[in-house]
Design brief:
The complex is a heterodimer. By secondary structure, chain A is an alpha/beta fold. Chain A is 34% helix and 20% strand. In chain A, strands 1, 2, 5, 6, 7, 8, 9, 10 and 11 form a 9-stranded mixed β-sheet that branches. In chain A, strands 3-4 form a two-stranded antiparallel sheet. The model of chain A has no long low-confidence stretch (mean pLDDT 91). Classes of the chains: A alpha/beta, B alpha/beta.
Chain lengths: 310, 264
């Protein structure tokens, strides 16, 4: 049983670790306060070894849930895989409680196989593979009722025991928030000797109640020193299939993503209009690169901006 | 803990962004509009939305001898609100906490907030089935918790997660009062054609699958979105809208279950 950290724990990575008043009485104070003895998580070396052939890692983040992190991850993966047939892409779904990638990438019901070199991810396309906790569940109804430490253990396993092979880009789909999953993945993947190997994309919708949480996520990235490639505004408008007029379903009363990007000093990569055709294709796990409309055009622009920034 | 609270209702969904906070606030406002004294507790620590939705951003929590005093929306003191949003110095500050710290905060919200006599306490949750949910369910064993309202949107990818939440309710022994399907259709303001952007009937199918009542289907209504930032209830502002009708029937359903006499 692990003792809970003291209430105002400065965090083991802080320079104040073991030195502030809250540390008095903490069983780990001696380890924290001695800079030479600072123990590095043994998992970090394992992750680094397993990921040595993965060139770039891209976190898909958003403070808010349901803005389309998973959909954007899927759309990007499909489009990148189609546009860069000579590159290899991987997707890791670290949303432990609500994995969506198996459905969106059309791999519901697939199984992962264990081999000598670790878990083999599920192949989606010639140059795309996927790992998700969804593959380890017996049924869709199975719930993962885990507290933080157990989720962290699972993420560590996904990072260190999956046989990713050689990848040009690994996209990591995350749950909403700024908590265990996010801290774990960042602490395992951030490499201070190669700060550009881990970057983030932020997904938002135009209304203020979403932007409110997304600003928190941008500040999370700044605090954790993760470079932000840019912001994708999803569900920005809706074109009626009957009369062809556009309407704003989630009105951008505060200027939407464009105003927020300016305020927070991050680039805006583009806006994706809401499109029932794409929504349905995603639900069914179909490849969207065959669809040709405003949403996929916007997607093409976003993809080329992302590839240019890596 | 919560000894002056008669009924507790938890609003859950495995999926994020389906409208838990909007349903929670509008349900609280609808209960208030029908004469109840209501509390609203927001336990989404990383993304608190309730202060913004009720136009209460920037208000400060005061400490009294018995604990924290919740924010009252007006003089009548019929709606009390508590959220971590009131404790942050800046609205853009992230709360970067691991599980144990979140657990402590939620326990504090349940034990140290001075809720007065309440007919209903609505608890708004973050998405998922993890620390926040486990903690709140553990605490709910000691209080008169009526059960959970599950919010979903109709598309398959949301239903996958919501089915996990239903399993969570079963495993932790909390009663599911019913399912609310949100964002079920969008009526084009130009031609009045209704498009089911996020497909349709998902909520009904889920309710049948889980053998729980479907409490109602809420359309995407931009007029409801415009009410965000105020304490206006859909019941008064948009009395004829289908959103108001659904909320009214949910309130009736809850009153039928709990038989709380209206105090007004």
């Amino acid at each position: 049983m692990q003792a809970p950290p003291p209430e105002h724990c400065p965090g083991v990575e802080s320079e104040q670790a073991g030195l502030v008043s809250a540390c008095a009485g903490c069983p780990n104070q001696r380890i924290c306060s001695d800079p030479n003895k600072k123990l590095e998580d043994p998992g970090k070396a394992l992750v680094a070894a397993a990921m040595k052939d993965v060139k770039h890692k891209l976190l898909i983040l958003s403070g808010k849930g349901g803005v389309g992190k998973s959909t954007v991850t899927t759309l990007l993966t499909r489009y990148l895989a189609r546009s860069y047939p000579d590159s290899n892409f991987g997707v890791l779904d670290i949303d432990i409680c609500g994995p969506s990638q198996p459905r969106l990438l059309g791999a519901l019901g697939e199984n992962v196989h264990q081999s000598g070199s670790g878990w083999s991810p599920v192949g989606i396309d010639d140059n795309v593979c996927l790992m998700s906790i969804g593959f380890l569940l017996g049924s869709v109804d199975d719930a993962i009722i885990w507290r933080g430490p157990k989720k962290n253990g699972m993420i560590r396993q996904f990072l260190s025991e999956v046989d990713w092979g050689t990848l040009d880009l690994l996209l990591l789909d995350t749950p909403p928030g700024t908590s265990d999953e996010h801290l774990s993945v960042v602490s395992y993947l951030r490499d201070d000797s190669a700060p550009d190997s881990l970057k983030a994309i932020i997904v938002t919708t135009p209304q203020e109640v979403a932007l409110l949480d997304v600003r928190k996520e941008i500040n999370f990235c700044k605090k954790q020193r993760i470079p932000i490639v840019g912001v994708v505004e999803n569900m920005s408008s809706f074109r009626c299939g009957n009369c062809g007029n556009s309407s704003e379903i989630f009105p951008a009363k505060t200027g939407g993503a464009a105003a927020m990007c300016q305020e927070m000093d991050v680039p805006l990569l583009g806006s994706l209009p809401l499109d029932p055709q794409v929504t349905r294709a995603c639900d069914a796990g179909e490849d969207i690169t065959a669809i040709n409309n405003a949403t996929t055009e916007a997607l093409a622009t976003i993809c080329s901006k992302i590839m240019a920034s890596l | 803990m919560l000894d002056k609270v008669k009924n507790v209702i938890v609003v859950l969904s495995g999926k994020g962004g389906v409208g838990k906070s909007t349903v929670s606030t509008q349900l609280a406002l609808a209960l208030r509009a029908t004469g109840h004294k209501v509390g609203l507790l927001d336990i989404d620590l990383c993304g608190p939305s309730v202060p913004h939705l009720l136009g209460l951003e920037g208000r400060d929590i005061y400490q009294c001898d018995d604990g924290w005093v919740p924010i009252y929306t007006d003089e009548s003191k019929t709606l009390a609100v508590m959220s971590i949003g009131f404790l942050l110095k800046n609205r853009n500050d992230p709360v970067i906490w691991r599980g144990p710290k979140k657990t402590m905060m939620i326990k504090q919200f349940l034990t140290d907030v001075k809720w007065e006599d309440l007919d209903y306490l609505i608890i708004d949750t973050p998405p998922g089935t993890s620390d926040e949910h486990i903690t709140v369910m553990e605490c709910m064993r000691e209080v008169p918790c009526n059960g959970a309202i599950i919010v979903t949107t109709p598309q398959g990818v949301a239903l996958d997660d919501v089915r996990k939440e239903l399993t969570f309710c079963k495993k932790t022994g909390i009663k599911v009062l019913g399912i609310v399907e949100n964002m079920s259709g969008f009526v084009c303001p130009h031609c009045s054609d209704c498009t089911n952007i996020f497909s349709s009937f998902g909520g009904a199918e889920l309710a049948q699958l889980a053998q729980v009542p479907l409490l109602g289907t809420l359309p995407i209504d931009p007029r409801v979105g415009v009410l965000a930032g105020s304490t206006a209830s859909v019941l008064n502002e948009l009395a004829d809208s289908s959103t108001a009708q659904v909320l009214r029937s949910i309130v009736q359903h809850l009153d039928g279950l709990t038989a709380v006499p209206t105090s007004a």
